[in-house]
């Protein structure tokens, strides 16, 4: 069986000193969207958070293993095919993130190394 297309596609990124931003698009179809919710799929928050943590670890702003979620908020439904800007900012002991499109904030939070 073929591997599914990734849930998130990075369309372009801009790394900077202590800041990383990218335009991201959600896949139209993905196994993570099935059953959450039937007929009206949304991207589960755990997948949004996993995507952010993966990037922060690649940037070496978070260590492998446990992290502390100081504050994480999912403020709007992230739907299939949606495009948004993701900004991850390095902090002294971890990072913060903000996922939005214009005035619509999908998720944001602060994560510390465990």
Keywords:
mainly beta, 6 strands, globular, 114 residues, 1 helix, 12% helix, Thiol Ester Dehydrase, Chain A, six-stranded antiparallel β-sheet
Order of adjacent strands in the largest pleated sheet: 1-2-4-5-6-3
Number of DSSP strands? 6
**What is the CATH C level class, in words?**
Alpha Beta
Number of domains: 1
CA-CA gap between termini: 37 Å
Please give the CATH architecture: Roll
- What's the rounded overall pLDDT mean? 94
Could you please describe the fold and organization of this structure?
By secondary structure, this protein is mainly beta. It has a single domain, classed as Hotdog Thioesterase (Thiol Ester Dehydrase, Chain A, Roll). Helices cover 12% and strands 46% of the residues. It has one helix and six strands; from the N terminus they run E-E-H-E-E-E-E. The chain has one helix at 45-58; strands at residues 8-16, 19-26, 67-74, 83-91, 94-101, 104-113. It has a six-stranded antiparallel beta sheet, with helices on one face. A hairpin with a 2-residue loop joins strand 4 (83-91) and strand 5 (94-101). The longest helix has 14 residues, at 45-58. The chain starts with 7 loop residues before the first strand and ends with a strand. The mean pLDDT is 94.
């Amino acid at each position: 069986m073929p591997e599914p297309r990734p849930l998130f596609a990075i369309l372009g990124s801009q790394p900077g000193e202590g800041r990383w931003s990218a335009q991201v698009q959600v896949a139209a179809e993905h196994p993570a969207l099935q059953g959450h919710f039937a007929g009206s799929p949304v991207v589960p928050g755990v997948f949004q958070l996993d995507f952010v943590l993966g990037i922060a670890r690649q940037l070496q702003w978070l260590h492998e293993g446990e992290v502390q979620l100081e504050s994480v908020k999912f403020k709007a439904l992230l739907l299939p095919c949606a495009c948004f800007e993701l900004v991850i900012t390095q902090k002294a002991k971890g990072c913060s993130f903000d996922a939005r499109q214009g005035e619509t904030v999908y998720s944001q939070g602060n994560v510390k190394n465990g």
